[in-house]
Amino acid sequence: MFHDKIQDKQKELQPWTAQINTKQAEIDVATSERDALAKKAEALRGQMKEAEEKFSSLQSESKTKVLYTITMIGLDLIVRQIEHQNELRTEKGQLQKRIQEADRLLKVKGLFVFPVRAVFDTVKGRSSQCTRVARKSLNKSK
Hints:
By secondary structure, this protein is mainly α. Helices cover 93% and strands 0% of the residues.
């Protein structure tokens, strides 16, 4: 008796059971699609994080390279300036030696030193003029 009643109720509910099963299958498909999209979103978040880290690293490397380049240019300019200063010191030393030699020669010949030294001090690189002044002084003293 109960068995018959149960079978009758199951026959009545059979269209509802089919609809429930259809809806459950649709829910399962939607759940599966949602899970796939969630995995895809998580993978994209990971890729986005990696891209941001790589971008940050590249920015840091770029800044480092720019600072290195600026430093190297600055060092090159400093080296050039030091080399130029050394050249000027060498030239100054050579000119001082020439002046000392000229003073020595003039003292040996008994000539007056001041005008020749003034010419050396005021006219750079015009040693020929100094030589002419010295020769004129020598000629006058003979």
